[in-house]
Every structure is written in C-alpha cells, then in structure tokens.
Amino acid sequence: DSHPKHPPSNPSSQAPAMKNAEALRRDLSRRQFLGRSAQNAAGVAAGMVGLSSTVAKADKSSPVRVGIIGVRNQGRNLAAAFAKMPDVNVVSLCDVDSSLQPAAVTSVLDSQETAPRWESDFRNVLDDPQVDAVAIATPDHWHAIMGIMAAQAGKDVYLEKPVSHTIEEGQQLIKAARKNDRVMQTGLQQRSGSHFQSAVDLVQSGKLGEVRLAKAWVAQSRKSFGKQADEAVPQGVNYDLWLGPSAERPFNVHRFHHHWQWFNEYGIGELGNWGVHLLDVARWGLKLDLPERVSASGGNYVFKSGQEMPDTLAATFHYPRHTILWEHRLWSNHGLEGRGSGVSFHGEKGTLVVDRSGWKVYDSKERLNSDTSDQLNSHLRNFIDCVRTRQRPNADIEIGHQSTTLCHLGNIAWQLNREVRFDSVSQTFHDDAEANQLLTKTYRDPWQLPEV
Length: 452
Fold this sequence. Notes:
Elements: H1 15-35, H2 38-47, E1 64-69, H3 73-83, E2 88-94, H4 101-109, E3 117-119, H5 122-127, E4 133-136, H6 140-152, E5 156-159, H7 167-179, E6 184-186, H8 194-205, E7 211-219, H9 239-243, H10 269-285, E8 293-299, E9 312-318, E10 323-329, E11 341-347, E12 350-355, E13 358-362, E14 369-371, H11 376-389, H12 397-416, E15 420-421, H13 433-436
C-alpha cells in the first residue's frame, strides 16, 4: 500500500452519527421488507455488483458506482443528484466530520433504495473495488492530492472547482488523468448548460463583430464572519486529516467548513469560488487559453474577520489581442450590467451578457436572447456518459486547470502587488524568481503531492 498510513480511528467520537446512520439503515430494511417483492430486492442487490474498478468495457445495464468525498454543502448536493440517476448507485459517502453523516445519507435515500457506506477516511473509498468513480468536494487544499490518488487507484474523477491549490498541482492532475487513462471532469457546470453553449456559439459566430473584451464579475452583500478564539476540536471531527498537507495549527471554527476558502492555506478566495466559473466562460467564449500578463489590485477593505483573501479585487488578464477583466465586491449587491454576477462579451456590433439565468444581446438590430437551462444535472450526466464511453468530458481536467490557473495568476499578481508575466508553454514566470516560488507550496508530511 503506497498510501500514507491510516491514522488510528476514534470510535467513541463517531458513535452518535453511526447510531443515526444505523437507524436509517434499519428503517430502510423495514421499508424494503414491507414494500418490495423478493424479486425486486434481489434485483437491487445484484445492481450493487458487476462493475470492475475500470468501467471502460462495462455492460451499459450495470450501474456506475460512485463514492462522494466531502459531503457538507456541494458534496451533499452531488450525492443527491447522482442518486437520482437510474444508472448510478451512490455506494459510499466520506467526510472527516461524522456529524454530517445523517443528512448526507438521507439525501441519498430520498432517491436510492440502498444505503451508502460511511467512511471517515477517503483512502478507504479509493481502496474499495466496489467504487468505480469518485466525486471530490473537499476544501481546495485537498483537491489535487485526492484527485491524483484517485486516478492512480483506477477511479474516474468528478473534481470540484478550483481543481488545484497551486499551478503545479493542476499540471500534475492532467498528467495523472492521462497516464492512468481516467475520465476527470471539473465541476464547471456551465460547460454543460445549453444556454451557456448557445451564448458561446453566438459570440464565436461573428454576429457581435470582433469581440476583444470580456468582463466577469460578482457583487454580493455578505456579512463578516468576525473573529473567534481557538477552541477544542469538535467531537467526531478528524481535524488532523482535515488539515492534511497544511501546517499543523489549533482548531478555529472560522477557519473550518465554509470559511476555509478565505485563508490561503486552504483556499484561493473569491477567485476560486465564483471567479473560476465566470472566468472559464469568458475564456471559453473568446477561445483563449492562458494570458501573457496579469495585474491585480484590491484588498480587505470592508471585512475585519482576519481573512487573508481580498473582499475587493480587480484583475486584468492580458492576451496578445484580447483582454479579460475580473471584479469582485463582497459587500455590495450592485453588479455590472444589472446582474449580481455574470460575464459580458463586448463586440463592435453588440454586447452579450450571460449568467445562470440566461443571456441577452444589447445594441443589436436583431432580438437575441435565451432563458436558462439545466447545468448541474446535465454536467453529471455528461460525466457518467463519459465514464462509459471513455470520451473526454465537457469540462475535462485540462479545461479546469487552465481556468483555475487564471485564478492563481490573479491572486499571485495581487499578492506581489505588481504585474506578472507568464509563459503559457512552460507555465512559469520567465526569470521572475519571486513569482516562480508561488507556483508550488510546502506540504506537511506524509501528504506530499504524489509523483506521477
């Protein structure tokens, strides 16, 4: 076993959640006994076996067996959405916080008759031959390590955005997916939304004329989460495993769960939250990869929570013949183009504005617009279809890496307080030693970035 050794478990700290899960299983068994024939029960049991850990040649009548790693908000949403698919079984759920178990299991049982196994250590999911694919929805600092380990374990991967915590991590993820012939979908669900696809098609059609400028933004009025003293680790939380590759430090609730993204040890701020989604659409529409120069300005102007990532940021991504502008304000609801978040493409013959609710073209003689479309379910459907066909998904890991890299570049320019020049071929900052140091980071043993 090349995995770092599993830490000793603490059964007593997980007892309440395990008791709740066992009650769910007993209730499920009772409903199965009362409400289904023996033949149907046998059919469900048979559906839980039959796929090898590599499903490239799987019978299409067999379910794809999925494990979810990280089940607080988005992970629980993914679990519920996968469970609704008739050709998918959610066979395991995993989180270092056992208090999340009852709600996560219930979200699956709302649509699926068989209860998923619960794991507190993701390595158990990767080691399980009954798991064909995993969805990873942990804090950012875990994405690359888990994604690479999953690919090396023969699992296909649905990896939430941003895919990496550093630019080097993204490069290694691509290598791992290709070397191990794994499907690796990034959670950029706009790529599977038909109205985003039609918006991009229109931008690229020439109807707007030459489009050289795109803007992406988010403006939301959020509350400061304040400051709080360090405290004891909550019962049922494996905090050492939550920290993983990050430095050891005392537990603080304001660095845990949702708030982790504002601390650079664990997240990459608003650029990794909304920015990666919207910058991906801008890059997609303009047919761009990585920029040659990046500048950024901003800071923590309003919130006094001790957060490290900026509540206000303006970044400019310079390409040879295009410019992408990013802006976020987390203390104001007044966004650009009348929308709190979105992307605008500015052409000689009109401007197209798109967000998750639809798109519209302004300053055009022709009436051009579209209502919204499904995004998440279509994106998960695309992933499962690609698991079966072995085709590249709509938001393949290379797409995810490029859009995540824009976020890293914006943060690096902001951190250095100056423009940075980037070589998209070598993916380095030329001879800029100060910037090149930020391409990677220090990892806490035993959680080094896996060799690919």
